[in-house]
Amino acid sequence: MLSRVLSNFAGIECNNIDVLVHRFYDGEIGVTLTKNCVDEDVILAAELYPDTSENIVRLMFALDAIKRAGARNIDLFVPYLPYMRSDRVHEKSAESLGAKVILDMIYNAGVKNIVTLDIHNPAVKGFFNGNLTQINQGKADCDISSLIVYPDQSAFKKYNEIYNAHDHVTVEKVRDISGIVYTSDIPKEIVEGRDCMLVDDIIATGGTLFEVAEKLKNAGAKKVSAYVTHAVLCGNALERLENSHIDELQTTDSIGIYGNSSKIVVKHIVRNYIKEICSCF
Predict the structure, then answer these.
(1) 155: nearest Cα among 193, 200, 221, 196
(2) Helix (H, G, I), strand (E, B), or coil: what is residue 147?
(3) Which residues contact 249 (CB under 8 A, 6 or more apart)?
């Protein structure tokens, strides 16, 4: 849990408080602060991935400790906010609404302001009773002649304003008679001989991006790159990335990259935008 990030960057003057996590013999955890914070405004910076579910428990304990230590206000900076893809329930289905559960927990723990990068579905802001601010997630490094490729309609709606000077194509997701979802073919006349840049908010297993990249190369693309805000890369995604048709994966420092890949280029959005992040509180 990154409790010092706001003071470690940009020479920001603040009264540092470290959050110490200790584990008991039975596996339970406890959280202790190194200082009291009576009548102070506290910004807690937290990294919740990997080990997401445990880190959320740590976050709740840390927020409780800060509140009990007398903080006047608690604001939260979390570059990657997990569970936000659980943003809807299917009709006639008794299932959890993960995004609302997490945001309710954070609000009830005393947080009135959250700053993050690139939420999967911006509509989840309606689940949070405080202020939920998204920092600019940056832009892909690509030439104006590059073809922007959106892996689905959601990505087009989110990013088309950023890349509206480029030619673009949106891939459709198709469900066959057995219920399997696959991506539509991409016309060769649009792609052949061009550099292509896939744009999305997150790569987890990488299934969709790898499939689209293969279809782009088969359609004659010269180079296929991707820009994603959050490189979760779970399971064997790193190995699959190395063997995929993606030539370069650009991503941000919203979460750490756990493993090595010659294809990954990290843009330091969190570091570069730290002053903007502070201005949001």
Answers:
(1) 200
(2) strand
(3) 203, 225, 226, 228, 231, 241, 261, 263, 264, 265
* Cα–Cα distance for residue pair 167/160, rounded to 1 Å: 10
Burial of 102 (0-12, 13-18, 19+ CB in 10 A): buried
The predicted-structure confidence for 122-150, as pLDDT tens digits, reads as follows 999 999 999 999 988 889 999 999 999 99
256 neighbors 1 (Cβ within 8 angstroms): no
Q: Is 139 a catalytic residue?
A: no
pTM to 2 decimal places: 0.89
pLDDT digits (tens, 9 = 90+) for 199-221: 999 999 999 999 999 999 999 99
Residue 102 tokens read as 């997490």
- Domains (range + CATH), the chain: 5-135 (3.40.50.2020), 147-267 (3.40.50.2020)
Residue of 229, 262, 225 whose CA lies nearest to 246: 225
The catalytically annotated residue of 139, 173, 188, 275 is 173
For 238-258, b/e burial (b = at least 16 CB within 10 A) is bebbeebbbbbbbbbbbbeee
The string of pLDDT tens digits covering residues 28-73 is 999 998 888 888 888 888 889 999 999 999 999 999 999 999 999 9
Joined together, the tokens standing for residue 253 give: 């420092």
CA distance 43 to 41: 7
| Residues 240-260: tens digit of each pLDDT | 999 999 999 999 999 887 678
